[in-house]
Amino acid sequence: MWEHERLVVRTGKRSGMTTMVAVHSTAAGPAVGGCRMKAYGQITDAVADVLRLSKAMTLKCAAAGVPHGGAKSVIVVDRPLTPELRRDVLLDHAELVDEFGGTYRAAPDVGTGPEDMVVLNEITPFVYCLPEERGGTGSSSGPTARGVLAALRAASNHVFGTEDLAGKKVVVSGFGAVGRLVAEGLTAADVTVSDVDENRRTDRYGWVHPDEAYRVEADVLVPAAVGGVLSPETAAGLKVKLVVGPANNQLTDDGVADLLAERGIVWVPDHIASAGGVIYTLAREDDGVDHETALKRVDAIETTVRELLGTGR
Ligand SMILES: NC(=O)c1ccc[n+]([C@@H]2O[C@H](COP(=O)([O-])OP(=O)(O)OC[C@H]3O[C@@H](n4cnc5c(N)ncnc54)[C@H](O)[C@@H]3O)[C@@H](O)[C@H]2O)c1
Question: What's the pTM?
Answer without folding.
Answer: 0.96
